[in-house]
Amino acid sequence: MPTKVMRSGLPAFGVMAALVLAAHGVSVRAEPGPVAYLDPGAAVEDRVADLLGRMSLDDKIGQMAQPERRYITLEEVTRYRIGSVLSGGGSAPTPNTPEQWADMYDGFQRAALAAPLRVPLMYGVDAVHGHNTVVGATIFPHNIGLGATRSPALVREIGAATAREMAATGMDWNFAPCVCVARDDRWGRTYESFGEVPELPSAMTSIIDGLQGEDLGGSASVLATAKHFVGDGGTEGGADRGDARIPERELREVHLPPFRAAVERGVGSVMVSYSSWNGLKMHGNRYLITDVLKGELGFTGFVVSDYDGINEIDGRPGFTKEEVVAAVNAGIDMVMVPTEWRRFIDHLRDAVKDGSVPMSRIDDANRRILTKKFELGLFERPLADRRHLGTVGGDAHRELARRAVARSQVLLKNDGVLPLDADDKIFVAGGAAHDVGVQSGGWTITWQGRPGPITPGTTILEGIRGAAGSVDYDAEGKGIDDSYDAAVAVVGEKPYAEHHGDLTGDMGLDAGDLKTIERLRAAGVPVIVVLVSGRPLDVAAELPGWDALLAAWLPGTEGAGVADVLFGDVEPTGRLPVTWMRDADQQPINRGDGKTPLFPFGYGLGYD
Ligand code: GLC
């Protein structure tokens, strides 16, 4: 490591630091005055310029690499001057407790601070509906349900609550919100969309204000990420990571506006989509990333790739130096290279040395990344803020989540059976009735989510039991008879995430759920169907036999919010954020396309 002489005098932390720096081969001339980049009173742009001037090429390349936590040691974080690590979906410490997350974060942070220039790292995590990888955290409704609330203010509150639970564990960077515009419900990520028209995701970028705070760096402020840039919800057939074969006018009118809104709110980062636009992989699209996002929209934060996203540029497994060059020159500032980060660093160093990536691009990427680190206050407050630990899964956040669940419910049919009465004798059935994992959906504790008591919460059945005195339950409806005033069938989808949720054929309920509903109907009592799903399902044929239908979406841990609407404690006010098809052959089906749906975008009944 060549000896670097720091341009100005002793760092703010004095002689001791000089000895430490010297031990790392960084000799410090004994001059008076603080080191600018360590001076919290200096302007951020001056701090960035000063730090950049002290950084070697390896320092700068380390800031652009983002390994996954399982594939790098703390010693390597220090040695390679790594600027960020992530937890991929479900990647949690053992035991999976908030305190253990905070210890893990602090361990990585101290490793980063042990490098000569003491540049703190950022730790990225998908907290897409609460701090959802942490057992015990509050799990909020997924975005499609929040879109049904039509309340940017509520969504902002959820962002702030999520930020508090993240800050408690140290996590300072959220790969959220997804501002995609889901145009085809066969897409496995439909539930990550706030809605099928640009104005809904655009309005719900209010969550960015909640996550980041009025200004970055306040108490419980985390960096937000608008994703996935751009057109991920517009691919042919709703194929995840597919090709959006649409004219530029449609890309700009439908898919770009939520990013414009996010940039106007000061979103700190933007994540590039795996998908393609007219055959070109977004991860190599310089026109859209640099000219449109950074130029036309004026985005001054930094752009991060998706997980191994650069691997897909040439359509072949793994990544080459050419793909590294294409991605960085396209305008990607930080590359999420979970396992192959050493090879990425070598390729990028070679690319700078042979001129295929200009130093100006490296400096621009570092300027963007470092600016956010200074604005986040990481140089001054690098460790987890454990004062917020009590908020993780606390009563206040769970009450907020319950309110959000109730406001996300969309009443699609009611032949007078709703609202239920606390004195009613009720039979509850269905595979989604008593399962926190199912009602939370994907991105919950694990990447794909899974059925079962995966984290503390209230099931929809428990919510119903809290509202009525006489409630019986059997998942398959066995034991039902005509002595009951009503039967509630809570059915729908099992958890999934990303391409694992793509549908290509039937979009109806599974045979088990249909059989359960038929068993309830045969008893001759009114049947209320509560649908727990990440998207509209094909229910037109069965609907006439149901007395009521409530779209519950993926409510998360606070299932009592569904009961609040079933019993009228909260009026149903949700409105469809997506058009509800008459049958799967209508997909894609969206507002204004001339097709006749079962229920139109914006539909929803009340009780009056
Ligand atoms: C995933 C998703 C992206 C997520 C990232 C990190 O593949 O596409 O939404 O933020 O990887 O987990």
From TrEMBL:
Pfam families: Glyco_hydro_3 (PF00933), Glyco_hydro_3_C (PF01915). Transmembrane segments: none annotated. Residues 57-371 form the Glycoside hydrolase family 3 N-terminal domain. Gene3D superfamilies: Glycoside hydrolase family 3 C-terminal domain (3.40.50.1700), Glycoside hydrolase, family 3, N-terminal domain (3.20.20.300). InterPro entries: Cellulose_Degrad_GH3, GH, Glyco_hydro_3_AS, Glyco_hydro_3_C, Glyco_hydro_3_C_sf, Glyco_hydro_3_N, Glyco_hydro_3_N_sf. It is an enzyme of class 3 (hydrolase). Keywords: Glycosidase, Hydrolase, Signal. One of its GO terms (biological process) is glucan catabolic process. It catalyses: Hydrolysis of terminal, non-reducing beta-D-glucosyl residues with release of beta-D-glucose. One of its GO terms (molecular function) is beta-glucosidase activity. Its EC number is 3.2.1.21. The keyword S-adenosyl-L-methionine does not apply. Residues 1-22 form the signal peptide. Belongs to the glycosyl hydrolase 3 family. This is beta-glucosidase. It comes from Actinomadura hallensis.
